Amino acid sequence: MICCKEIDDYIKFVEENPNETDDEIKLLIKNIVKPTLSRDDVLFDEEIFRKAVKYCEKWYYKLFLYQKFTYALFFMYDKNNHDIVIFPDILILMARGNGKDGMIMPLANFLQTHYYGVKNYHIDIVATSEEQALNSFKVVYNMLETNKNIMKKYFYWNKTEVISKATHSILRYNTANAKTKDGKQTGMIIFNELHAYEDYKQINVYSSGLGKIKHARTVTITTNGTVREGPLDEKISMSKLVLNGEENFLGLLPIIFKVNDLDSVDIPMKKFLQTGNKEDIDITIWCQANPSLRYMSVLRNELIRDYIKMQKQKSYRVEFYAKRMNLPQQDEEQVVTDWKNILRASYINVEKEIPRNTGNITGRLAIVGIDFASLNDFASAGFLFKRDGEYIWRQKTWICSKSKFFGDIKFPFDNIGQEGFEDFEIVDKDSIDGRDMILWILSEMVKYNVKKIVLDTYRYKLLEQIFKEIGITIETKEVPYGLVRMIRYPASIASIVAPRIEVAFAEGKINIGNSAIMRWAINNTSVKEGKDGNKKYEKIEPKLRKNDPFMAFVVAMSAQELLDEEIIYV
């Protein structure tokens, strides 16, 4: 059993201060740190760890408890091969203002020294902007300049590189074209502010130089941000699997500081906003994302000011939650509607979850909407009604279990058949049979007065033979009362119906019933405004966050004016 006072002290701190540490830190300790300490094939180099702490505190700053805990985990090695570190891939995710550069750069400088003793252990700082990379580098540069008379015995340095005289290890920052950096022999790469990366181009080029020097490590130290579905989101997704106990073949060490939920963000400030008394502020919960907060009064004041700014300046909301609390939020101006409105579309009483029903709609006018991206993925069809200004939508979705994305889709398919999960079907075939979808529509149509079946031209072509075999007529100039209406320019739909849908959600005039998959689909959809001022609907994530049920509703809404023809005789 490996013993380390700093690790034990931090574990004790987490246990004694449950509100100050987030769930991810608790899972880190439970499923990664403690199992590592109990492994008999792991070596902890306590001597080098002690030297690292001493060096960093002498020449830089007094280290906080969580920083010492993190440093210790850098010095875990394979007992049978000391050239291999146990954690070659380290993610440190904390909110802005906690001193990321001040945490990682002193350690990076130590790894250059003769105390660490690895020859040619080159360290690359990589960032998307020169300013960011230079800020990190300057932590070391400024220390050397301040202590020039002593440090010139151990290092050469200029404004771009720091070189150890003993080990020839080079610390350098990088922002130039990634193509020019291929093939570098690197001991450690520090990816700073990964949230700004949209792809892996630069990351892959730098990573190709790892593996040629012992103790190879990649350190990602970052806040969260507003770029979604990029490398950081993927890294966080991998981290969650490991934190929840999945086998850690990649040696990932995810140290994630984030506020557990949105409600926790508001708790410290509620009473203060009512009374104006600063003594009513207790921001202990904010330490979940800001572990330096208990030690830094300046950070405390910054966070309080930023929270108040966010209350008054709604455009700052997305950045505040993402960068100060590590809780990325969708831009309310980008999503179809907020979650509160989605719930209101399902429930007449949201708190008690009393579903909105349809009442008696037998014989009423209806529009059918159909949408699917591919019949080997998702397909949806539904009936749209209108009553007393309310749009009623009831749908069915078919999901192909053979889709290559099925296993990664984050929707509780196992709940099928339970309340709220009764309007979808899992198809255990290579493809969804379009005939099954059309037959379902026909079986439901006998209950209502269907005016149109609406879908776009592309989807009609895939179902055309089925429509013809069944004898369903197509709307044309010659046959204006044909049942199937083809939308020839699908991109134009949103510009027409989006404003109507937005208002209907805001006024509580959309009724989707208790449909989990419909709520999920709406929440997976963004609405964006083009340069021409027209709006268009897009998936928030193209592969895993499906929105076919909502888009079937959208195409049905394109013909909603036909529902106004209904006359009810009393």
Describe the structure.
Helix content is 36%, strand content 20%. The radius of gyration is 29 Å and the shape is elongated. A hairpin with a 2-residue loop joins strand 2 and strand 3. The longest helix has 17 residues, at 130-146. Helix 1 (5-16) crosses helix 4 and helix 3 crosses helix 4 (65-74). The strands form 5 sheets. It has an 8-stranded mixed sheet, with helices on both faces. Strands 14, 15, 16, 17, 18, 19 and 20 form a 7-stranded mixed sheet that branches. Strands 1-2-3 form a 3-stranded antiparallel sheet. With 570 residues, it is an alpha/beta fold. The N and C termini lie far apart (82 Å). It has helices at 5-16, 23-37, 46-59, 65-74, 100-110, 130-146, 148-151, 201-207, 231-243, 262-275, 297-312, 317-324, 339-346, 434-445, 457-470, 493-506, 516-523, 548-557; strands at residues 42-44, 76-78, 81-85, 89-93, 123-126, 155-157, 161-164, 170-174, 188-192, 217-222, 252-256, 347-349, 354-355, 365-374, 378-387, 390-400, 424-427, 449-456, 484-487, 510-511, 525-529, 535-539.
In short:
The protein has helices at 5-16, 23-37, 46-59, 65-74, 100-110, 130-146, 148-151, 201-207, 231-243, 262-275, 297-312, 317-324, 339-346, 434-445, 457-470, 493-506, 516-523, 548-557; strands spanning 42-44, 76-78, 81-85, 89-93, 123-126, 155-157, 161-164, 170-174, 188-192, 217-222, 252-256, 347-349, 354-355, 365-374, 378-387, 390-400, 424-427, 449-456, 484-487, 510-511, 525-529, 535-539. The chain is α/β, with parallel strands linked by helices. The model is unreliable at 176-180 (pLDDT under 50).
